[in-house]
Amino acid sequence: MASLPEDRPENRFAHDEARRDSDHVSFLKHRRWRWAKIATVLSIVAIASYLLVDVTPRHNGGSWYGYTLGTVGAALIVWLSLLGIRKRNMSEGRWSLKAWTSAHVYLGLALVVVATLHTGFQLGWNVHTLAWALMLLVVISGIYGIAVYATLPKEISSNRRQMTKHEMLEALAAIDRQLESAAQPLARDEADLVIAALEQDPFDFGLWTRLTGNYRRCWTGDALAEIEEDDSDPAVQKVLSLLRKRRAQLEQIRRQMRLRAMLDIWLYVHVPVTIALLAALTAHIISVFYYW
Ligand code: HEM
Ligand code: HEM
Question: For the chain, N or C: smaller number of CB within 10 Å?
Answer without folding.
Answer: N
